[in-house]
């Protein structure tokens, strides 16, 4: 019933935006943050993922991101990522706005992706902003140009979101008839404001309802794993394309 309902909403919609979070990547072997097995269960994000941590305990900050970057080497897009890329090709999805920093949507073939929280695949100098190779961050190098600290291009707590990605997402959200929110607890501001900015129908695909997700009046909630639910919707859509 619910996968069929979502397929029907997608067929009716002229512009569909998909908003993804860490729950979209757990089936690729990347832990999320706030579920029972999430990263923040054992680590305080303020100590490793904030502007403060970058300034005050750089070694812990650097080790946290080196570990996550290295673990990405063994991860690849799962069926759900590939299905979303196929939906884009068929004109069924106009933008993927993601909070994820692993670039799995792009690896799966999605072209129109807004990285709202940046990524942990590219590196820059915190002081002069110049780009550096991933290997330089992984082997504890300092900036080649100004000897500043190297860091991934991820949005840390306390940093503003990249304006190009944010503006592009806002534009699409305002035009969307349908927003499909997948694998996010909607705990983090300002991304958690996006669903309420849309005049379209709201759908939530998540393993569980969360305290924040219950604040939204979703038109449809599909509880379960992102990969499985997207596969069911894919089946329901057959070879339909816009
Ligand atoms: C900003 C580092 C302004 C990068 C991240 C007090 C109250 C309210 C807000 C604030 C506050 N104090 C500070 C703030 C603002 C702060 C914020 O929102 N804090 C919250 C946590 C209280 N926000 C910021 O700082 C943002 N910047 O506001 O700037 C500003 C203005 C001017 C000048 C300066 C600043 C920046 C946001 C930071 C983004 N960076 N982390 C990193 O290392 O990744 S946030 C972090 O959470 C991740 O990046 C992640 O993307 C993000 C969201 O998490 P989710 O993706 O939702 O993941 P989560 O684990 O929570 O949920 C996953 C869900 O999936 C679960 O429900 C699970 O059940 C489900 N699931 C799991 N597997 C599956 C599944 N579902 C389906 N299928 C599955 N297989």
Automatic annotation (TrEMBL):
Keywords: Hydrolase, Metal-binding, NAD, Transferase, Zinc. Zn(2+) binds at residues 125, 128, 143, 146. The keyword Iron does not apply. Residues 1-241 form the Deacetylase sirtuin-type domain. Its EC number is 2.3.1.286. The active site is at 117 (proton acceptor). GO terms for molecular function: histone deacetylase activity, NAD-dependent; hydrolase activity; metal ion binding; NAD+ binding. The keyword Hydrolase applies. It comes from the Bacteria. It holds the Pfam family SIR2. NCBIfam families: PRK00481.1-1 (NF001752), PRK00481.1-3 (NF001753). This is protein acetyllysine N-acetyltransferase. The gene is cobB_2.
